[in-house]
Specification:
Number of strands: 7
Strand content: 15-25%
Helix content: 55-70%
Strand order of the largest sheet: 2-3-1-4
Number of domains: 3
Largest sheet: 4 strands, antiparallel
Radius of gyration: 34 Å
Distance between the termini: 84 Å
Oligomer: single chain
CATH architecture of the largest domain: 2-Layer Sandwich
Number of helices: 5
Keywords: Coiled coil
């Protein structure tokens, strides 16, 4: 009889331990469900924030490109470096005005808002309107090979264009007409983005 009582005690003790473990497992399952819900919410919020960051980057890039719309960068132009900023600005304006009138043979007045020497020795020219910028580009054929005039683009557009250049050159080697237009490549009249080449 004593053995039966001991056996009952052991069984009761085991049952109590099983019940306790069952409660712990149930509690852990509830915690896991809660964590999964909060993890899913965290992932959703993270994705939302990533979309907002991309949207802000795109808006900033568009704003930067709009601000640079009337800008050109001139490379190969000989400008004396002067330590005084105001004198340096006047020197740039004089050299650029001479380029427009004597080299590009532009006979009308060109309205320049800003003109200054860049760190890499290029000259940035900001026109007051796009009409004057277009007049300058129409005279580019008059330039010698040492002087080049480029549109001023945002960093992102410059990087995209840099990556598109090998595709442009490859298309030309195949005898196709190809040119860069903003952040796209036009090949035989068809427009391609950088993503089009990355998918291939």
């Amino acid at each position: 009889m004593k053995e039966v009582k001991n056996g009952v005690k052991v069984i009761k003790s085991v049952a109590d331990q099983v019940n306790s473990l069952t409660e712990e497992v149930s509690s852990l399952n509830n915690e896991i469900r809660t964590l999964r819900k909060s993890d899913a919410e965290f992932i959703r919020l993270n994705q939302e924030q990533a979309c907002q960051i991309i949207d802000l980057q795109n808006k900033f890039n568009n704003f930067e490109n709009e601000a640079k719309r009337n800008n050109v960068i001139i490379r190969g132009l000989k400008v004396n470096v002067i330590s005084n900023f105001e004198e340096q600005r006047k020197e740039c304006e004089t050299v650029v005005a001479k380029l427009f009138t004597e080299t590009l043979k532009i006979e009308r007045s060109i309205d320049v808002e800003k003109c200054y020497l860049l760190k890499d020795e290029g000259v940035l020219v900001k026109f007051k309107n796009s009409r004057d910028k277009n007049v300058v580009f129409s005279g580019v054929k008059e330039l010698d090979s040492d002087i080049k005039i480029f549109n001023d683009f945002s960093y992102n557009v410059r990087q995209t264009r840099k990556q598109l250049i090998p595709h442009m050159l490859a298309a030309r080697e195949e005898g196709k007409s190809s040119k860069l237009k903003f952040d796209k490549l036009v090949i035989d009249g068809n427009i391609f983005s950088l993503e089009d080449f990355e998918r291939d």
